[in-house]
Amino acid sequence: MIGSRQNNLSTEPNTHKTLRVLRIGLLTFYGVTVFVVLLTLTWITIRDYQQTMREAENYNLSLARALDENATRAYVSVEQAMQNVAEDLDRQGGVDKADEYVMHLLLKDKVRLTPQIRGIITIGPTGILHSHGLEYPARKISLADRVYFNYHRDFDSIRPYISEPILSRTDGKWLLPLTRRVNLPNGEFGGVLLSGMEPAYFLKFYDSLQLPKGMQIQLLRSDGVVLINYPFDESALNKNIRNDDPLLFEQLRLKRSSTYIKNDNGEKLITFIVNQSDNPLIIRLSFNVDFILAHFKTQTYIRTALAALLMLVISILTYILMRQIKRAEQIEARLYLTQFTVDESPDMTFWCNESGRIYYANKSLTKHSAYRSDELSSLNFNDLFTEISEADWRQFLSQLHDNNTINFEGLLKNSLGKITPMEITLSLIQFQKQSYICCNARDISARREAEQELRRHRDHLQEMVMERTAEIRTVLDASPLAIMLSMRGTIRLVNPAFELLFAYAASDIIGSPTHNIFSSTEQFSEANQLIWSKIASGGVFRGETELYRRDHTPFWAMVYAKALVPGDMSKGLIAVIEDITSQRIAAQAMRQSERLNRTIIDQTADGFLLIDAGHRICDVNHSFTRLLGFSRKNLIGRHPHDLWGENAKKFFPDQLASLIDKHQAPIDLELLNHEGIAHPFLINSGVVLDEQKSIEYAYAFFTDITVLKKIETHLVEAKEAAESANFAKSSFLANMSHELRTPMHAILSFSEMGLGKTQNPNHSENLNLNRYFERINASGKRLLVLLNDLLDMSRLEANKMTYDKGVHSLQMIVRMACAEISSLISSKQLQLHIQDGEIEASAHFDKARLTQVLVNLLSNAIKFSPHGGEIEIHFIANAQLEPDQPAIGVSVRDHGPGVPDDELEYIFDKFIQSSRARNGSGTGLGLAISRQIISDHEGQIIASNHPQGGAIFTVLLPSHPR
Question: Each residue of 701-731: pLDDT tens digit?
Fold first, then answer.
């Protein structure tokens, strides 16, 4: 049958010609036969026919004008209901500036007073639904892809716009949108106001008219789009009848009132009325001519029967035969159009029998497979899809007998050997007691390339992070001095020199408290306070302290420390540690004996310079001559001032007595060598008293810190490189989040469209499609949440987060956050207790960002709460951030396992989660983002544990901004 149908395509014009000749011949025979009878009845028949048609035309025109008046009143009343709301939005400065709850009450009242309106909504300038007359709070659905939204955004006219019928994304029902642009005070686009008219309002009115049988009504927009049809046919909505005959449509529209006969599946009397008011509406009535002429035909048949019973029989037989010929023509035309559509389809379509033999293939399959049509008819299914075995085909047949339709992916191999990935749909068709398999294949090469490109970008990002980490690690490993990074009293990073000095492996010491390398926590607290007093303003600490190795053996170390971020202790510090135990032992030995001092001075690596009371150089050691290049004999008897000028007075002042009993910190000073090149030194100077306590000598030790200076320079460069890498990372994340959000919005929009179009349970093929669209939509939303978190984190790190602050009610924000996650609360059957205060607490904050913080805290509470548990929300009316800073706040408590005490601050770090998280879900960014947002509001967010179990997260905000 399928093969024969393909062969019959070429004979289609001949078939039509034969039927047309047969119809003409039959009419000629009938005309000759009944000519005598018709001659006597012609005048009466023509008179009755014209009278019947005039009456029908007059009735249709009267009915059309009544329907036009009804439609005009309906749309005018809707425009009037919208006018006050639109003016109110214009005065408030656009949709986003209006209070959602107040607007909800106003819209709800308008819906109640206007029966033809099912709902009124406001849409912000970005396309997000702002407020709804039927629900509060409104679901934040994107309507930016709607035609009416793009129309109002691109054109500044405030005239109401009648859009085509649409399926509502809030309740899934048909509605007739009437929209109006909302302007900002400066005339720019401020959003859209939409009134959704109820199609049932018009249909009930049409039902009440008790229209004659065969009457059809269409309410059209001026461009021909069908807004309402009666009897109601959902598939005809949005159809543009102007496309059927544009020239005729324009002629009728210009005439404004027309009546004509149309022969389309039976003769119909068409009445066309264009609305006389400003509304761009058209009423189109269609009355079946057969119903109009029913009485006329009856009278004609009676007269004909009285005239000649035989002629009546001949007339009836001729009429029946004519209808059969006409029906045959229509069937032939439909079969031809169906076959043409399948042949020209861009998707590959072919038919097989149960053994897999191909009976028919369209042009697209012929093109992609590179086989000729006659070659395809000799192939089987698995000749094209070679990876499908006979066992697989039998399994497909079994599944098709159970489900009628299956989907899978395969590889098409054409005659040239090219492999193309395909998405294949098999459907089982029963025809004339035989089973056929309809196969549809779609090329998915582009989709797979897009998935591969996304994976490539992800791998590239990971490589960049690893490269930056390796660079920092290389700098630390190359340092000969021990280096340690400490944050909040915890060691975060050490280099190999540190491991060697303290006898700790990096895996053992990283993560442990910093006081482990001190004798006690008290000693650590004192040293830490001293260090931060020096480096808080950006300086460098240098000092000696006693430290302890892993085996608890003490040693003296010179510590150089610098804050990573001056003034912020939470960002930690980096310390360079040098073991100076040997230097201290040498200094003690020098004070015991002059001989021993001389020996040590001669052997020490530091330069030593000795002068008498008259500032003449008496002695130098070998290290001094080695470091500065002067010979000993050229120095004896000279003054230090001759060598270094005023710099010499910094360690040998004119009054040497000032060095007596005075603790002198080492001096960081650059001195010139014999070639005039400056070298950095740490210089310690002092005096030697004789038995009468008079100054006999003064001395100075010169420690070469060239290497330390280079290390410090390298550390600063490494820190700057790390900051640059971090900034590049943040910029990359921000750019990638923006780039990925754009296709994600498209994916979500198309998945929502797919969900709306596959909700009809009467079509079995819609079940699988609906499930696939649900999975796409859910996965897209999860990925969009992750992208939003990454974008927020990168903005906060770069201090580019903007806030739209104003005075808002804290209770209202909490209610909005609870409504936003109500579905999560219901899914775990949790009880939400909000202990509201008697007075509304208001503060100055960004409403959207504070809602984001509360949603994060409530989401964490839901995640850690047991099934069927409770979540408690308390409002804090009187609190203090500082002694003179009043504050208000809100706390969220769950009844879960709580947070370990040592993690109460740690969980606010980026990418960190509590060790009690059961499944490790989430990115660990929620609390970090929340703390930064609250900090930008000059507030605090605090984590604690309740004595009876569960965690408490408290948010405090200033009552009055500074």
Answer: 888 888 888 888 888 877 777 666 666 666 6
